[in-house]
Amino acid sequence: MSRREYYRYAVARIRAMEHLLLDAGVIQRLLDASDLAEALKVLGETCYARSLAENVVHERYDAALEAELLSSIMELRAFVPDKELVDLFRIQYDFHNVKVILKSSFLAKRGGKKRWELMTSLGTIPTDSLIVSVESEDYSLLPYGLPSLIPAALSIWEQTGDIVEVEKLLDAGLFAAMLKVAEGFDEPGVLKWVKARIDSENFRNLLRLKRFGMSAQKAAAFLHSGGTVSVDTLVQLFSEPFESWGRALFHFEVGGAVSKALDERGFDRQIAALEKALDDYCRDAVSLARYSQDALENVLAYLWGKEMEVKNIRIALVSKGASTGRDETRRMLRNGY
User: Fold this and answer.
1) Tens digit of each residue's pLDDT (9 = 90 or more) over 146-167
2) For position 1, what pLDDT does the model report?
3) Which of 27, 63, 129, 186 has the most CB atoms around it within 10 Å of its CB?
4) Based on the number of CB atoms within 10 Å of its own CB, is 282 exposed (0-12), middle (13-18) or buried (19 or more)?
5) Domain for residue 323, yes or no?
């Protein structure tokens, strides 16, 4: 049997799980809630009820959202033929945890407090094991190139004390690891999603760095290779006014997302619109897989849809705590699965 034939059962299971995703009506009820307590009550009527019950304090709703996302990840991992495909989605959280551990180590040396509460359970490496490996300097069993990346990050910190340089190194390592895993599947759709993730990070960086008035030469160091738009093209684009970016990117799929964001007035609104448009661009990279009964991208499409659902819930709940207007909040919501 071919690999895709093995995925027919997995895709059928994913279709059965789709009814657990929240529909637009539930998100609208969250937006219409009078305050955070009422919004959490609405959420308690959904599949998030159990996770909320285990994290009853309102301020801990983030823990409930993470628990629900982890539950979906582990459910898929139980029946997807290639566990590495689910883990491809989770690598980003491993690198997040490495950043937290290293920053905590740097803070502790200056008399600060370690921030283990900022770590997430969504990665592939158990958090306790990762802490022990880093603190004992025993990296040999860590995946994704971390045995060489962590010492390099520590060296950068010892020489420069520049946390931005440390993050740049780890971000480059993250995307290199994701590309390596994706290429191992020899499936264009899987690789397309990773390239979309790289495009998204690059354009987020471009717009922020443009705001800070950084030179094109310095901005190049914050860009990652492997996306659909080359680093050279991005550097050339950086020197051009925002208004011309859409035309310059006409032949790239990501160009539509960028153009949509730059139509907004005011830099803050452009940033918010770009965040949303790029998340939707990543969704679109695998959305057509839903018409296939054996495409591997169905796994990534569902996981991305669930993550965007969690992000939308978080946006709605934060807006209640901050008394943000409904129209402004609705503009930030990502398109659903």
Assistant:
1) 999 999 999 999 999 999 999 9
2) 59
3) 27
4) buried
5) yes
* Structural domains counted in the chain: 1
Per the structure block, which two tokens stand in for 214? 């950084």
Please check whether residue 88 is in contact with residue 181, taking contact to mean a CB–CB distance below 8 angstroms: yes
**Could you identify the residue written with the tokens 């790239």?**
252
Give me the domain span that covers residue 46: 1-82+296-337
* Cα–Cα dist 205/222, whole Å: 7
Q: Please tell me the predicted confidence (pLDDT) of residue 59.
A: 58
Handedness of CA 215, 217, 218, 221 (dihedral sign): positive
CATH of the domain at 325: 1.10.132.50
| pLDDT, average across residues 310-337 | 87
In a domain, 30, yes or no: yes
Q: Is residue 121 part of a domain?
A: no
Does residue 310 lie within any of the structural domains?
A: yes
Q: For residue 266, name the pLDDT band (cuts at 50, 70, 90).
A: confident
pTM higher than 0.90:
yes
Q: How far apart are CA 218 and CA 226, in angstroms?
A: 19
